[in-house]
C-alpha cells in the first residue's frame, strides 16, 4: 500500500460510507492500490463488522456515523455505496460539506433527485461522478471508439443484457422496494448506459415491460426497446430470475462489435470481436482493475479541477431514461 501511494506526492484522501460489499471487495482495494489515492476512513453503523471487513487496511479509521466521515477535515473525497434510496441524502450532505463524491450507480432514484445532487455539486464547487466503472475498462473504451469511428458502419442496433439469480436471497437489499432495489436499478442501468454511450444522446421514445411478482415488490425482470430515432434502436434486458449472464452487441450496417463480458469482467483477460464482411477479428485486453482506473481518474480530476469523463449531463439523461422505462411499463415505483 505504501509503495503505490508514494508514487503521488499529494494523494487524494478518501472516506467510504458503509461496509457495503462493493466497497470492501472492490473500491477500497482499488483506492489502496491506486497511484494517487489514500483510504483514510470508513463509516459504518456496525463498527465491529466494519473493523473486521476492513482488516486488510490497517490504520484506516472506523467511524460509527456517516456524518463523522463527511465532517473529517482530512478527507477530500467520499465514495458512497449506500442503498439507492440513500444516495441523494448522503451525497448531498457530503457535497455541502465540500467533499467530492463518487456515488454508486444509479446516481439517484429519480431524475428529480439526481438533478438536486448535480445542483448541490455546482453550488458548492465540488466534483460529483456516477460510478459506472465498466466505462473505464480499455475494452469498452476501444469498442466505443470503433463504433464511433464507423468501423462497422452506421450503428442501427445495440443489444445489451445483464442478469443474475437472486431468488434464493430475499433479504438482499436489491430485493427491497423501500431501498429502491430492482433489476433495472441494479443491473439494467448498465445496458441503458451503454446504449446512451454508443449513440451519444438519450432515446426519443421508450417501450417496456416489467415483471413484478406482487404489489409493492421490485421488478424482477425488465425488458425495453429504446428508440434513438432514424431507425436506431437499443434492446435491453435485466433480471434477478435468470442465471448470471452479461453481453453486448453493437450492430452497424456493415458489421458487428461483440463484447462477451462488457460490465463486470473481473480480473481476467477480455476479448472484443469485430465481424465484418464475413470475417471476425479479435482485440484482446490484458487483465486490469477497472475500479482502480475509475478511482484514479476521479482523483486526477480532483487535483486538476477538470470535469470527469463521465459527465453529469449524461448521468441525468440516463436517469430520465430509467424513469421513462418504468413509466412505459406502467410500474409506479420508484417514486420520490
TrEMBL record:
Q: Which residues form the GFO/IDH/MocA-like oxidoreductase domain?
A: 147-257
Q: Which family does it belong to?
A: Belongs to the Gfo/Idh/MocA family.
For this protein, the record's PANTHER family field holds: OXIDOREDUCTASES (PTHR22604), TRANS-1,2-DIHYDROBENZENE-1,2-DIOL DEHYDROGENASE (PTHR22604:SF105)
Keywords for this protein: Oxidoreductase
Which Pfam family, an example, fits this chain?
GFO_IDH_MocA_C3
Domain of life per record: Bacteria
* Protein name as catalogued: Oxidoreductase
Q: Which residues form the Gfo/Idh/MocA-like oxidoreductase N-terminal domain?
A: 13-131
**Species name:** Reticulibacter mediterranei
Per UniProt, what is one GO molecular function of this protein? Answer: nucleotide binding
